[in-house]
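Hi again,

Forgot to attach this to my earlier email, sorry! This is the prediction with iron/sulfur cluster bound. I've pasted everything inline since the attachment limit keeps bouncing my files.
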Amino acid sequence: MAKRYAMVIDLRRCVGCNACTVACKQEWPDKIPPGEFRTKIKEIESGKYPNVKMVYRRTACMHCADAPCVKACPVEPIKASRKTPEGITIVDEKLCIQCGACVEACPYKVRYLNTDNKINDKADSCNFCYPRLQKGEKPACTINCVGKVFTFGEINDPEVQKKLKLAKPLKPEFKTKPSVYYIPFGTRKWDTI
Amino acid sequence: MAVSRREFMKLSGAGAIALLFGDQFRAFEVIAQEKGLDTKIVHTVCQVCSGGCAMKAYVRDGRLVELRGNPDDQISRGILCVKGISAIQWLYDPDRIKFPMKRTNPQKGIGVDPQFIRISWDEAYATIAQKFNEYKEKFGPESIAFIMRPQNFAQRLAKAIGTPNYISHHNTCYTTQEVVWGATVTGKGKPWTQDYANAKYILSFGWDMPGKAKNMQTQNFLAAIDKGAKVTVLDPRYTPTASKADLWIPIKPGTDLAFALAMINVIITQNLYDKQFVDDFTVGFDEVKEFIKPYTPQWASKITEVPAQTIEKVAKDFATMKPAIVATHKRDAAGPNYANSWRLAHAQVILMGLVGTIDRLGGHIMERMPKFPSLDSVYPAPPYPKPKAARVDGMEKFPLLLKTGKGSFSTFHRAVLEGKPYPIKAALVRKHNVFAFPDAPSMVEALKKLEFMVVLDIHPSEMIQLADIVLPDHHFLEGSAIVGRQYFGLYPQVAIQQPVIKPLYETRGFRSIIPELGRAMGLGDYFKDVSPGGYDEACLKAIGTSMEELKKSPNGLWGEAKPFVPTKEFNTPSKKIELYASEFKKYGYDPLPAWKEKKVKPSKEYPLYFVTTRPPVFIHSTLQNLEYNIQIYPENLCYINTETAKKLGVKDGDYVMVESPVNKIKVKAKVTEGIRPDTVCVDHGFGHWSKGMTKAYGKGSNEGDLIPAQSTQEMLDANDPSMSENMNDLCVRVYKA
Ligand code: SF4
Ligand code: SF4
Ligand code: SF4
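Structure tokens for the complex follow:
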């Protein structure tokens, strides 16, 4: 059986530096158009001065097992927006007809379609750095994180399992079965889309 | 873990992924070897900030593809920060300066095209030599200024020419702390190793290095929290550091000194100090005890707007949760931000002396660097001419600052404009820009007035736009050096910096350029045999190793881990930590940090305090020309409290004018609950006007324009030994643009 991957993000440790964002852009210079991001930090402020609280949340494709973007993709018989055997969501650029249905369907709003640029005019979102995984590497965004925020690996990996015990998916009510989980920061608000 | 070729084949595919995940560094190498790819790993050192993280560069088919931290380095511990990894974009930025150039348009200024044309290195050297020698002849050697950080090769050239004017930016940064730590503890400057990881209580006076992703400080700070350390942050703004704290105290800007004094009062009157440490390693306790009497928490409460009980609680926690550390770096509240910042730095030394965390684990650690020989001992020089004139920046009048070798770029520009005490005609400039110095517009005027300016840089900065001759420096990923572990060294360790790729353009290393220039000027006697490689080799020989050995070393590092041995003698006249600073007394400064207010308070006209911060994806104005980084943070923001914004009719995302008595700038408002209602905060480092910086050009505004410049006389009148520029000691008004 193919491996399945999970990513756990520890919100208690993130300082919002966007090193993950830079690493992703540097990994995919030929895929991510100017001004677009596969991943980015969302700053979520709550409370009133002086009892304010902040959460920095790395936000990218959740690699949903029941992915609305896949269901919405009209291309047949092989969908342009589809799942790999490892449960990773990818966009097949050769098949994408730029209809934007997947962008509309994604409840997490992490996919974009930018037809107005020279780099990539097809739908696009995080692919867990699929080619790196095939080479035995971890996703680019996880390598240099001063907060040591990421735990990434095969879902049964003991390290991943340990972290998963503390973690929750973002907006479980979307019922898309994400592969990305978050360890909340106490009771702070963190789930703004 | 090594994986043989056969095993690797067997495991290829998903199996290999699982196996190799445990050892991510190995994986890359193994795969490269097994697949016969031209992938190599080069050990080098990050030079984006002064941190010096040792890094591993992954080079595939001659192209740098990835950077990672070196896991055996005390500083980086296998991780780089956002600025470090961005160095790839910097290296390959097509906007880089590619060859020496000379100006053909005699007009200079903002928006004026210099009309640079390419020249050879030989022509560049010949022109500079001829011009510099001409000015030296006609106006004296002091008419030539060096504007750069202290660096031994360049210092030798300045001395050989005979100019006293070696100027740097530091009094807009951390001379407050440099001078105070030098006088009371180290005899030289501030110790940069701060052992947060072993601290049990962390007290930040506006320190927000995690918010800047300062690598070693952030990792160690979070490690301390993992181990249960308590964190208190005093900051008018709710910073990323404050977001991790147990307690955020939005203290009134510029009143941290009162808070610190009241803490000292509590710790002494309630007998909470470390008696053994105070007895054994400090002097001046009795004087402090007497001096501190009036500074009660009730007194401080009125000034800081923090309840007396809170101050008392912080003081007690600080003294009893051992070890406790004062978190402080450069331009935080103890930086040159306010007229009383140097006093705050002194109060911080007293606090740490009282709880015994100076050169103790969990505290501020003195430098543990291997002893390298000086340039003069490796390459003895003939006698230097004696400078005939005083420095134009007035630094001789600040003897304790003078000892550090740092300078005052901010008073330099006024001297140039006024032509006093004598005219400055020419300058050699490196890694200094016109940004974020007080009164940036008149700095540009001053530099325009120079008849001949040579600028060394990597990027076509604003300084380059004002240059007559441009010399392209190697990018650090193309250069060589040996680098100590000043920013976090519990034991002596040295990292090798070596080229990860061949230089992309016709650039040269700074330490090669200087001797070449010296020889061209006819000062060859001072540069006989002087070479960067030769000097580095001599340094390594002195510690019993060599370049050859370091290059072969499996991790690019020298120095075995050693147990920490606490210092028993400090580098002061009494050999103890001088809580009462005899050096200050000797030079006519306050020997104890008596309360003084910051200079400027809110008025009807300028009702808001002004503080600054900077986004972690840049280092000041550097890195703003990186395509991805500027996309992430495309312009600077003005943080305004929700209530204040409402009163001003400003909504999040609106443009506002921020106006000070000297200037105004337009910036985007960021409305937040995370700042005091009487304070605004503006990001620093924006407003590039050099068209050569195609990505950064025109993005945001320069907050340095708002800061009034001080004269040397004003600095003398303040009787501040550090010649501090008081970068945040101003108030502003804000209105919708
Ligand atoms: S690199 Fe780590 S600390 Fe920085 S923003 Fe990303 S997750 Fe947060
Ligand atoms: S997060 Fe959005 S793009 Fe990613 S799998 Fe789910 S629906 Fe698709
Ligand atoms: S896994 Fe790869 S593609 Fe996805 S956000 Fe991280 S770096 Fe980008």
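Chain A touches chain B at residues 2-3, 12-13, 15-19, 21-23, 25-26, 34-35, 37, 40, 45, 47-50, 52-56, 86, 133-138, 140, 143-148, 153-154, 157 (CB under 8 Å). Residues 5-183 of chain A form a domain with the Alpha-Beta Plaits fold (CATH 3.30.70.20).

That should be everything now.

G.
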